[in-house]
Design brief:
Length: about 240
């Protein structure tokens, strides 16, 4: 009887370890600038994006994918080429800025145009910061291009995926001067960004432009990077996005 109990317990423990080792990484992130397809969807600049508008940071799938949705069916809209994806005009050297809502040990970051890997950054298993920037040379390409960026997690079989549509050599500057996304205004611009949260209070689901000011917990904060706020991104929790004033 004791031997039977021991065998069952061992089997359950083995199964538990297997499940844990196959679970998705406890990390999330996406490219905010130049805006990736999921960033454009979250900002409402592209319509009918499905679930991705609520979680642009969650395009996580098995390593080795070569598509914009990471093989995740509910994010398949990201690979729909019939959508009118805006292309950001850039020079031949581009800074790609990631926002990481949870940080995880990283093996490599890869950048592809078509089947050509244009850049590789090796983190050697280190944990990244809340924001990551990579400078990529695209001098071998011109015109409209779709770039696929891949964040390979070090200790799981998964990676995060982001596609960025670019107009290379379209009159844009070379290196992006700051990690601030270039967002096409959807209303008449004003000297000071308009805060859409009621009474200037921070609220999840609200789009904030650079320089927008909000109140949270009785304190004032200024937006450092344009983004759509998500639960968990409260100003005190994401210093990469908000600065106390």
């Amino acid at each position: 009887m004791r031997r039977t109990i021991m065998v069952v317990a061992t089997a359950l423990l083995t199964a538990g370890v297997t499940v844990l080792s196959a679970a998705p990484a406890l990390a999330h992130g996406y490219i905010s600038s130049p805006p990736s397809r999921q960033a454009l969807c979250a900002q409402g600049r592209v319509a009918n994006c499905g679930d991705i508008i609520y979680e642009p940071q969650s395009v996580e799938g098995p390593k080795g994918q070569r598509n914009c949705h990471g093989g995740v069916a509910r994010f398949a809209q990201l690979s729909d080429e019939s959508k009118n994806w805006p292309a950001t005009s850039v020079g031949t050297t581009v800074n790609f800025n990631w926002i990481l809502t949870a940080r995880h040990a990283t093996s490599t970051w890869e950048y592809y145009i078509g089947n050509t890997r244009v850049a590789l950054f090796n983190d050697g298993g280190r944990q990244p910061g809340a924001t990551v920037q990579h400078t990529v040379n695209l001098s071998g390409f011109g015109g409209r291009q779709k770039l696929l960026a891949i964040w390979n997690i070090a200790d799981t079989v998964n990676a995060f995926y982001a596609c960025v549509d670019l107009q290379i050599g379209g009159g844009g500057p070379g290196p992006t001067p700051t990690p601030t996304p270039t967002v096409t205004p959807t209303r008449t611009p004003t000297p000071t960004p308009t805060v859409t949260a009621p009474g200037g209070t921070w609220a999840a689901g609200t789009y904030y432009a650079v320089g927008a000011q909000v109140t949270y917990g009785g304190l004032r904060y200024r937006c450092l990077q344009a983004h759509t706020a998500l639960t968990g991104w409260e100003p005190p929790n994401v210093p990469a996005l908000w600065q106390r004033i």
